[in-house]
UniProtKB/TrEMBL annotation:
<keyword id="KW-1133">Transmembrane helix</keyword>
<keyword id="KW-1003">Cell membrane</keyword>
<keyword id="KW-0812">Transmembrane</keyword>
<feature type="transmembrane region" description="Helical">
    <location>
        <begin position="20"/>
        <end position="39"/>
    </location>
</feature>
<dbReference type="InterPro" id="IPR011743">
    <property type="entry name" value="Caa3_sub_IV"/>
</dbReference>
<feature type="transmembrane region" description="Helical">
    <location>
        <begin position="45"/>
        <end position="65"/>
    </location>
</feature>
<dbReference type="InterPro" id="IPR005171">
    <property type="entry name" value="Cyt_c_oxidase_su4_prok"/>
</dbReference>
<protein>
    <submittedName>
        <fullName>Caa(3)-type oxidase, subunit IV</fullName>
    </submittedName>
</protein>
<keyword id="KW-0472">Membrane</keyword>
<feature type="transmembrane region" description="Helical">
    <location>
        <begin position="72"/>
        <end position="94"/>
    </location>
</feature>
<dbReference type="GO" id="GO:0005886">
    <property type="term" value="C:plasma membrane"/>
</dbReference>
<dbReference type="Pfam" id="PF03626">
    <property type="entry name" value="COX4_pro"/>
</dbReference>
Length: 103
């Protein structure tokens, strides 16, 4: 019985360590995005912010939501959510591009 408990505690320790590392990476990316937001780089500022946001959301999807090990239906629901967000961004972009005058 103590061997089972030792394996369970080892698994739990690895889980906490993995989550702590992902949390530290997310905090590091947060600091990086805050730092890059105040550097005048022109259009690259927005591009770098979006790239960092994609990396952060990928970390959350893969490690915290555990989409790698989830069933196909759960992954399909997550993909449907991403498609919906993409359509909303495309519609917003189309609206902005069709307006006359300064943005």
């Amino acid at each position: 019985m103590s061997a089972d408990r030792g394996r369970q505690e080892g698994w739990l320790l690895r889980l906490w360590l993995r989550n702590a590392l992902v949390w530290a990476a997310l905090l590091g990316l947060l600091v990086l995005s805050m730092f890059l937001a105040y550097i005048p780089m022109g259009p690259v500022t927005v591009t770098s912010g979006v790239a960092i946001a994609v990396i952060k959301s990928s970390l959350v999807l893969v490690f915290f939501m555990e989409l790698i090990r989830s069933r196909a239906l759960i992954r399909l629901a997550a993909l449907a959510g991403l498609v919906f967000v993409g359509v909303m961004f495309a519609l917003t972009l189309a609206d902005v591009l069709t307006r006359s005058g300064k943005i």
